Amino acid sequence: MTHQAGMPADREAPMPPQPAWPITVDPVTRGALVVLSAIAIVAALDIGQIIFAPVCLSIVVGSIFGPAADRFTRMGVPTWISAIVMVVLFVLLLLTAGAAFMVPLSDWLDKLPLIWSRLQSQLVSWQGFFSSVSSLQQELQSAMGQSDSMQVSVDDTSAVESVFYFAPAFIAQVILFLASLYFFILTRPYLRRSALELSPDSDSRRSIHTMLKTIETRLTTYLFSITLVNLGLGGAVALVMWLLDVPSPLLWGMLAGMLNYVVYVGPAVMVLVLTCVGLATGTTIVAILTPPAAYLCLNLIEAQLVTPTVLGRTMTLNPFLVFLTIAFWIWLWGPAGGFVAVPLLLVAGSIIEIMSERP
Questions:
Q1: C-alpha 298 chain-centroid distance
Q2: Least C-beta-crowded within 10 Å: which of 200, 206, 305, 352?
Q3: 83-108 per-position pLDDT tens digit
Q4: Global pTM?
């Protein structure tokens, strides 16, 4: 075989440039990048609270109503109608609960001066103890060379100005929440399909499908089970308050069921509320402490026996980790963060568990 003039006998394809040495990252640098990334994410969540909080809350609530919307769709109802029905049903539930709260709650708000006066009368017996604490504080301040004078600043912002300032932001968050809830319920199947289409091979698609299915099943099971448990706790609290002849027992049952969604913090608030109820209705220490003590007994039964039995071991989370998660999200987003804290922790735990089981 002859070669053409001016052409090399063997032409080799050009090789891509190779790095002279493998690129490595120092562990200290990697750790610093992780810390800086975490700080940036927390700052972004804090700055964008007005957007992220209602959207995240809509995803959690939509996980409860999503399976019901899927059943309507399988019955032949158009997807957009099923989503609208779920949103309207949720709004009706909120309005019904709000109407049930308003009348008895307004009566108890009128009793706040009475509760405060009775609290002051009960604290008279503790006057000696508080005097001892005050004298001890003054001695410590004098020993450390500190002055006991205090400066008090008065904010002259009126309540009306505060309402006009926060009302537009609150209305915008409500609208964003309802819109996000509708679109999340509407597009749940499409979001799952899009995530699968982004996978490069069948093994990755299978892993992503298993992960999404497991997360959705666990989250829906948790939220539905907790809702049933909270309904049962609310009914038990209302019945016990009625047996104890506490006024407005249905109000305290509904409040106990709603606050129980926020683990640890909700029961603590409920104990404080029932202590104020005892101050308004009781005349002795036993009568004052009976309503919160009865609620604590019911909450202990629910937390230690009922909830672990209903959820099972697959839903069991580390109590200390749950407490830290709730504290973090309440600090970041307030009441909305307390509601979504445990579901987000459950999702994160499921992802870590599934990823650790992959070969």
A1: 22
A2: 200
A3: 999 999 999 988 887 777 776 776 66
A4: 0.69
